[in-house]
Specification:
Rossmann fold, 14 helices, globular, alpha/beta, 7-stranded parallel beta sheet, single chain, 15 strands, 377 residues
Length: 377
């Protein structure tokens, strides 16, 4: 038996989908089943550690998102036939899919941001993929949704039959994200950065308006005005659409001296950055799965989340919540958590317990089971 795995659009090393696929690959057990990866030629090296015994076939010599989507439409069917795949897995099915597949196909949907909200807030998918994706998703034999929120969106926005969708939440790597003892000093050193403590953390790509950084800047101003606390605000994430507007809001803030933008942050050091924070704030208007909240909770760091999309589903009662478009409401939660150390301790314990409910081992086992079921095994 042969399983094809599409690595296109996974962006290994820089995206949550890349982490997702890496975690699945390294948990595939040794068996008589052959797994073959295909994608950009440079993806070979990105997955070389997690897929040591798997063949990698480079495809898509013409660079560019549109060209690659056209490859999936025109070239993938013949490629899948010649490769003799019994089933094909698309880990980034919300960003890359063929129109049809000659073998059974399974896709994981991490978000439906391209079909959510208004034209201003929607993620850009391009002229080729956007009109084609709904039909392509409906043609999949099985769909894995990373949250119940995503499952309902697939039903409501795309018209996917509920029985074709199975919810399989992401996991958290408890070997990397765990409670750490942080020195009592006022500076946390994570090369090449030095973070003055106490600080509030938001770890997400700089994307406006969906990630809602600008309202967090305004809420931080209210927080500082009310409390006079020494807290700083740290944004850790790479530039994305609208990053210039976020940087302008920071540069013109009355508290700009207390706001630090790291840019792209090394993923191996992210657990330490979480652990050094007094608490995290996740103000996103949209999240397909609350990975940042989960990682913070696994580090025993309290989380304050927007009452939006999948965030309440992920964190449940282990976080504080606010209306994402209300800066005063956001600031109220920040003031409360920074002032009430008993509440702070309760949320640390509740978050750590909640994080134990999410396992990459379980995620991988259920994902592989669905793939093999689609192949008739």
């Amino acid at each position: 038996m042969k399983v094809g795995i599409d690595t296109f659009a996974c962006k290994p090393g820089v995206s949550g989908v890349g982490v997702y696929l890496s975690q699945i690959l390294k948990r595939i057990p040794a068996s008589g089943i052959q797994y073959e990866l295909f994608g950009w030629d440079y993806d070979r090296y990105a997955f070389s550690e997690t897929a040591k015994n798997m063949t990698f076939v480079p495809r898509g010599r013409i660079r560019g998102e549109t060209a690659n989507q056209i490859w999936h439409i025109l070239k993938y069917p013949a490629f899948a036939l010649s490769s003799k795949f019994d089933v094909c897995f698309f880990p980034a099915a919300h960003r890359r899919l063929p129109r049809t597949s000659p073998c059974p196909a399974v896709g994981t949907v991490h978000d439906m941001a391209a079909y959510w909200g208004t034209r201003k807030t929607r993620e850009h998918l391009g002229a080729v993929l956007r009109p084609m994706l709904p039909n392509a998703l409906r043609r999949l034999d099985r769909i894995i949704a990373v949250s119940g929120w995503i499952k309902q969106e697939l039903i409501d926005l795309i018209g996917v039959h509920p029985q074709a969708i199975e919810v399989v939440p992401n996991g958290v790597d408890m070997g990397a994200f765990y409670p750490r003892e942080i020195n009592d000093g006022d500076t946390l050193l994570i090369e090449p950065f030095g973070f003055k403590r106490p600080y509030i953390l938001y770890a997400a790509r700089l994307e406006h308006p969906v990630k809602n950084h600008i309202r967090l800047v305004k809420a931080f101003e209210i927080f500082k005005s009310r409390t006079k606390f020494p807290h700083r605000l740290v944004f850790a994430g790479s530039n994305s659409r609208g990053a210039d507007k976020i940087k302008e809001a920071v540069a013109t803030s009355a508290n700009r001296g207390d706001i630090f933008i790291t840019g792209t942050f090394p993923s191996k050091s992210l657990p330490e950055l979480y652990s050094g924070a007094d608490f995290v704030v996740i103000p996103s208007l949209y999240e397909g799965f609350g990975q940042s909240a989960l990682e913070a909770m696994a580090c025993a760091v309290p989380a304050i989340c927007a009452k939006a999309a999948s965030l309440p589903e992920t964190a449940e009662n282990a976080a504080l919540y606010f209306e994402p478009e209300d800066c005063e409401d956001m600031a109220d939660r920040m003031v409360r958590l920074a002032s009430d150390r008993e509440l702070h301790s309760r949320l640390r314990a509740a978050g750590l317990e909640r994080a134990k409910s999410f396992s990459w081992d379980v995620c991988a086992e259920r994902t592989l089971k669905i793939i093999l079921e689609a192949a008739g095994v």
